[in-house]
Design a protein that fits this description.
- The complex is a heterodimer of chains A (264) and B (397).
- In chain A, strands 1, 2, 3, 4, 5, 6, 7, 8 and 9 form a 9-stranded mixed beta sheet that branches.
- In chain A, α3 (54-68) packs across α6 (117-126).
- Chain A has 264 residues and is α+β, with helices and mostly antiparallel strands.
- Chain A is globular, with a radius of gyration of 18 Å.
- Chain A has 10 helices and 9 strands.
- Chain B has 397 residues and is α/β, with parallel strands linked by helices.
- Helices cover 31% and strands 21% of the residues of chain B.
- Chain B is built from 12 helices and 15 strands.
- In chain B, the strands form 2 sheets. In chain B, strands 1, 2, 5, 6, 7, 9, 10, 11, 12, 13, 14 and 15 form a 12-stranded mixed beta sheet that branches. Chain B has a 3-stranded mixed beta sheet with strand order 3-4-8.
- The chains are: A alpha+beta (264), B alpha/beta (397).
- At the A-B interface, α4, α5, α6, β4 and α7 of A face α4, α6, β6, α7 and α8 of B.
Chain lengths: 264, 397
């Protein structure tokens, strides 16, 4: 599947936006894992903004950055959201309350517990009635999202926004599902080359397994291997490089997906 | 889109195990709803509960994945020759050419709720045997079914609340069109858990009586559980008479509120319109619409507006949630299969439990069954987050 990248969004520890992180991913500046910085979401009405937790803020920030440079109207843009666990804090609080005597579940907490909560807030914030889906594929959520977004983009011949995000669980779930850092990545994909597109992706899911591409920097590699959305980092690294590269991403049951990246 | 053939399908819910029980219950106008006696829930509501004794443990080699949701999936997969149909598809196409697209809203969350009652006193740790990836994670359903069906193709779980297992048809159709697979297993499983029971109670959306879609006295949903699966393959030309086909998929977002539908049904209308254009059909071509019809005041009113705007009184409509309860993430596949049964058995199901039709609602709503054979049908599924999906199915002449 061949698609064209028009925009990238990135938020993670010490990765404050694609523009700011570009030299880090290109290897020109060393990566220093730092704080996760998220600008306030002015687009959401105040009442809705108060109800949003970290995963929603992270996903929307990454999506908005990818959208910003393209000039695409957001209200007609199809979107694919993907995450291993969505809002673990909300799930933890609900399970704690249900294990106690008083089984009160707050209405806001309940509607934020759905896996597609970020997609719902995205649609409200951008007044978008476009098609949107929300996926889970455990550790392979980014690859699953990439396949879904590319398939949508080429079969509907429409630009498609992919947003992948993963946030650690609080204890005790963190012990059984550890996730390193909070990472949000977004790619705005188009079916044809445009004045906004700067790279071409050729995504192939073939049988058989190859050796997955790793990050050279040990701290970035820790993020790649420890956070399901972190598995997008090799793609972002290649998008930061000016030359053509081929990447191997881990997929299900020992399979891999190859992504050939070339400038355009 | 190019039509796809539904070459095998199966459904399990409180109406029974397998297709035959569903056809009998629907033609006999039986409801599966019972007063809630699920787990330790103390709520004045009714549920569509699959009897616990029917949900047998997973085999030894899959013990880590043993939870109510996967047990329900296991029970459903074993009916109607579905395992054999998938085995034949595997030998025809190769396991790596069959995609798997499943929907769930809560997956094995009940398993986590129960584990939270048995945390280690000093550290707060969950029991050692608790396996997050195989039970709680939304993809645990995908992982389990992929292993059961021995599939090696693309696999994903869609979790968009109550539209989840309707949207699987869209993803499967696109993956087939993009050439990533030659056949697809679609479906879903959602089982009763305390999060949804107490969550919907907190939103004051649970009815204290069996739910009554489109009734003037309707006052909320009844939650149900179930699992359903279908095998989709590319169509033949010409299609043999009687073949059941997926003809169109329409997806949209509401852009309105997280848990309340758009009052004019704007998102729902967009989904239905897109499904019709995806099927290259007009509103007058649709004989029957299986409504989302949850029996909340706001859902039924908004859906009625949207359907009436597009179809007037041309298409017969009903919600089958009075019979099954609201199967949440499974409602999409369950109602798609009910539509397929209606076409195959040549009837249109009426609305169980609805006594007096709300006079302010205007669609042509079926209280009783109609002995007419629908040839083109639509199924609506709308979820939290304003996630809408409409599907169009047909029976080849």
């Amino acid at each position: 599947m061949e698609v064209f990248v028009e925009g990238v969004g990135l938020r993670g520890p010490g990765l404050s936006g694609w523009a700011a992180s570009h030299p880090i991913l290109a290897g020109a500046v060393p990566y220093v894992p730092g704080e996760l910085v998220l600008p306030p979401l002015d687009l959401l009405p105040a009442a809705e903004r108060r109800r949003t937790g970290l995963p929603i803020k992270l996903a929307l920030n990454a999506g908005l950055e990818a959208l910003a440079s393209s000039g695409r109207p957001p209200e007609t843009l199809a979107s694919v959201f993907t995450s291993s666990g969505a809002d673990g804090q909300v799930i933890h609080q609900i399970c704690e309350s249900l294990a106690g005597e008083d089984r009160e579940v707050s209405p806001t907490r309940f509607h934020n517990s759905v896996h597609n909560a970020p997609a719902g807030y995205w649609s409200i914030a951008l007044r978008s009635r476009a098609a949107s889906t929300s996926l889970c594929c455990f550790d392979c959520c980014f690859v699953a999202g990439l396949l879904e977004a590319c398939a949508y983009c080429i079969t509907e011949t429409e630009p498609t926004l992919l947003v992948s995000y993963d946030v650690p669980y609080p204890e005790p779930l963190n012990a059984v599902r550890p996730i390193t850092g909070s990472v949000g990545v977004a790619l705005l994909l188009a079916p044809h080359a445009t004045s906004a597109s700067f790279a071409r992706l050729d995504v192939q899911a073939e049988p058989g397994a190859r050796v997955p591409t790793r990050m050279q920097d040990p701290a970035l590699e820790a993020l790649r291997s420890g956070n399901p959305t972190g598995r997008a980092l090799p793609v972002l690294g290649a998008l930061a490089e000016p030359s053509a590269t081929a990447l191997v991403l881990e997929y299900l049951r020992g399979r891999t997906v190859t992504v050939a990246v070339s400038p355009c | 889109m190019k039509p796809l053939t539904l070459s095998a399908f199966t459904l399990t819910s409180s109406l029974g195990v397998g297709l035959r029980k569903h056809a009998e219950a629907l033609t006999g106008r039986r409801s599966g709803l019972v007063p809630c006696a699920f787990e330790s829930a103390r709520l004045d509501t009714w549920v569509g509960h699959v009897p616990d004794e029917q949900l047998t443990p997973l085999p030894e080699e899959m013990a880590a994945a043993d939870c109510r949701n996967n047990r329900l999936a296991q029970l459903a997969l074993a009916q109607d020759g579905f395992l054999d149909a998938v085995a034949r598809a595997r030998s025809r196409y190769g396991a790596h050419r069959i995609g798997l697209f499943l929907g769930t809203s809560t997956s094995g969350l009940l398993h986590t709720e129960l584990a939270y009652r048995h945390r280690e006193a000093s550290t707060g740790a969950l029991p050692r045997a608790f396996d997050y990836a195989a039970t709680q994670n939304s993809f645990s359903l995908g992982r389990f079914v992929q292993a059961q069906l021995e599939l090696e193709g693309p696999a994903v779980v869609i979790s968009t609340a109550c539209s989840s297992s309707a949207k699987v048809f869209g993803s499967a159709a696109r993956m087939l069109a993009a050439g990533l697979c030659d056949a697809a297993v679609v479906g879903g499983a959602d089982s009763l858990c305390l999060t949804t029971l107490y969550g919907f109670a907190s939103l004051e959306l649970l009815s204290s009586a069996p739910c009554r879609p489109f009734d003037s006295e309707r006052n909320g949903i009844s939650i149900g559980e179930g699992a359903g699966f279908a095998l989709l393959e590319r169509g033949q030309t010409p299609e043999p008479a009687g073949t059941l086909q997926l003809l169109g998929v329409g997806e949209s977002s509401d852009a309105h509120h997280m848990s309340t539908p758009h009052p004019e049904g704007a998102g729902a209308r967009a989904a239905m319109q897109r499904a019709l254009s995806s099927a290259t059909l007009a509103a007058r071509d649709i004989d029957y619409i299986n409504l989302h019809g949850t029996a909340t005041r706001s859902n039924d009113a908004a859906e009625d507006k949207a359907v009436y705007d597009l179809f007037g009184t041309g298409a017969a409509c009903s919600s089958t949630k009075g019979a099954t309860g609201h199967l949440l993430g499974t409602s999409g596949i369950a109602e798609a299969i009910i539509c397929a049964l209606a076409m195959r058995e040549q009837f249109m199901p009426g609305s169980a439990n609805t006594q007096r039709l709300d006079p302010s609602l205007r669609v042509r709503y079926l209280l009783g069954n109609a002995r007419q054979a629908p040839m083109r049908v639509m199924s609506n599924s709308f979820g939290f987050g304003g996630s809408n999906c409409s599907l169009v199915f047909g029976r080849a002449r």
